[in-house]
Structure formats: C-alpha cells, structure tokens
Write a structure and sequence with these properties.
The protein is built from 5 helices and no strands. The chain is an all-alpha fold.
Amino acid sequence: MSGAGHVHGAEHGDSGPGNKRIALLIAVFALVLAFSETLGEAAQTTALSQNIEASNLWAFFQAKTIRMTVLRTATEEVELDLQRALPPAAQQAVEKRIAAWRKTAERYESEPETGEGRKELAARAKAAEKKRDQSLAAYHHYEVASAAVQIAIVLASAAIITGIGALIWIAAGLGVVGIVFCAIGFFAPAAVHLF
C-alpha cells in the first residue's frame, strides 16, 4: 500500500520538502522579478521624461542665444548709424533703444529671478541630463536583474522536473545576482557601469 501511495505522490510531482523549498525559492524569485520589472519601468519612464525635459531646455537655450545674437547685431548696426549726423532728438531715441536692447540681451544671458536666462537654462538642462543618466543606469541594472531572475526561475523549475541538484545551485546563484543588481539599481545606479 505504501508503494502505491509513493507512486501516487510522484505522479503529482510531490517529492516532499525539497520541492516545497524549491517552490518557495521560485516564489521569492518571482517577487524579486516583480520588483525589478516595476522599478525598471519606472526608471525608464523617468529617463524618457528627463530626456524630453533636457531637450526642451536646450531648445529654449538655443532660442535665447538666437534672440541675444540678433539684439547684439542690431545694437552694433545702430551704433554705427549713430556715427552719422542725426538730429539730437533722433540720436537720443536711438541711444535709448540701444540701451534697451543691451539690457534685454543681458537678461537673455542671465535671468536668475525666472530661471530662464541662458546660464540658468544650461544648468537646468545639465541637471535633467544627469537625472536621465541616473535613471538609464538604474534601468539597465533592473534589466540585468530581471534577466538573471527569469533564468533562475526557469532553472529552479527544471530542477523540480529533472531532480538535478546542480540546477538549484545555479538558479540560487543567478537569483542572488538578480537581487544584487536590483539593489544596485535602487541604491547606487552609477556604481557599476554596464553599458
């Protein structure tokens, strides 16, 4: 009778506590996989968002540069015109216009109160690029973590079917690698450079 019970248990893949431990290990790997996938998607979304932000800021920077260059060119041209004999009222109006253009060009260069001068825009764009790079680094670590854990799950599952103990050790090793890369992506994405 005990032989029939043993065969019945084997048919259902229940070979005792070993398989239960492997199933628990697979469950832990699945949890790590869920975290790495979710965090990876969030990092990827942040990277895309910061890339768009940096691009927009650099475009704004370029627009300010063009405006500033146009104003400076106009100022220089009008200054040359001032050397010609103009009536005093016209000369005062032109000098007033030149002063206003210079003031505007200076504002285009630096405008700390609004953060929209060229200097401020460049600093903001560089900060967005840094955030983007951090998020991309994290994303790559999460991708490596996901791949390692997925392979670990497959190997652990194969170990249940085949009974080959070495597959469990390889799966456990890959699972640890996945956990490590997930932690690197979360805590220190710039610590290890993969790509």
